[in-house]
């Protein structure tokens, strides 16, 4: 898993390159880090609620959150994972419409709470940040579109394998016996990113275990003994 930076601003941490903070130049990044208010959350806390009308954003400084949505029947699907350096809640801040998803902490989280007014004022001053924000949103849209294409062209186990391979490569860590994701997600949550209902998740992971590319183990983590094999199974 990527090393999480400490929330102190005395030195500039190495932020993930695909996060908003990782995209910015050092002086611009520091200016963004200087606005807002530091907030701290414990594990399993809903920090943004679907359909709520608040419009602040959270700039993650330390920790991991999951973005999920609930449909009319009460079924919940995991949409994405966000880590330190990422911005969450930006859609409501930009369009002033109700929240489209819920954000839940995976462990302790430190963030900057930035009001929509503070964010818009900053973006008006720094057009370069607005460009990078649009690039970040574009990347997220492309990722979501890829999941839709996978749904049309790949069977269930391959779709889970494609999602898991991307998550492990982006957020995981290499250990003596393989790669671990290091984020407490259930099989149902992982499968839901690939557009699967809960009843299909167990069958998909059973197929991955039979293929020898994924092993589920304790603490809701997943071990990938052969990342190259997982990618091959996924058709990547």
UniProtKB/TrEMBL annotation:
Record CDD domains: CAP_ED
Top-level taxon in the UniProt lineage: Bacteria
One term under GO cellular component: cytosol
GO MF annotation, one: DNA-binding transcription factor activity
Keywords assigned: DNA-binding, Transcription, Transcription regulation
Annotated ranges, domain Cyclic nucleotide-binding: 20-105
Pfam family, one: HTH_Crp_2
Residue intervals of the HTH crp-type domain: 154-228
PROSITE patterns registered for this protein in UniProt: CNMP_BINDING_3, HTH_CRP_2
Name this protein carries in UniProt: Crp/Fnr family transcriptional regulator
Source organism (scientific name): Saccharothrix syringae
